[in-house]
Design brief:
The chain is mostly helical. It has helices at about 5-15, 20-25, 30-35, 45-55, 60, 70-75, 80-90, 90-115, 115-145, 150-189. It has 2 domains: about 5-75, 434 Repressor (Amino-terminal Domain) (Orthogonal Bundle), CATH 1.10.260; about 115-189. Helix 2 crosses helix 3 and helix 9 (about 115-145) runs antiparallel to helix 10.
Amino acid sequence: MKFADRLIALRKEKHLTQAEIAKILNLSRSTYSGWEIEGKEPDVETLCILADLFGVSCDYLLGYSDDRTHSDTVLADDRDGFLSHYKSLPPVLRESVAKTFDSFYLLLDHDMQSCCPERLKLYQSMLGDLQRLRAQIRHRVENGHMDAASVSELMTLQSDLKNSISTLLDELLQADLELSYKAANNSEK
């Protein structure tokens, strides 16, 4: 399937017009319609924004993959690799990984069943920030000599990570309190 076909299908799934998407992207409708009709493609940055808007990967949007998201690919392709890594761990570490997955599964499953998009987005943000900032920290540690400036940068990244996670945990707690408040008000009626 070509990019234009995917773009049209995804736009229709979201019940959006060409004009509405053009407005979201701060573009003219004619620029957007050129992607659907004339076989033109947006720049990489706009492509990423479109993929995010539609909740799909860039590969899916461009027609390179039939898996809508990277998690579809990872869950299908990496299962055996992950299982192999897991089985090669010492028992105490396997237990730690299993407990981590169990805990996260229970959190995510509850909010998926409750259909709580706010909390699911908070988990996404928290894990994304954790992954991104930890990668930056690892990169600096593994690829640099440790002078005063490097140590200062590491301290700043660590502080950013702590602040981000703390803020997101506060937001999760606030979401939980709001749900409890709503449930209490509904039970009183």
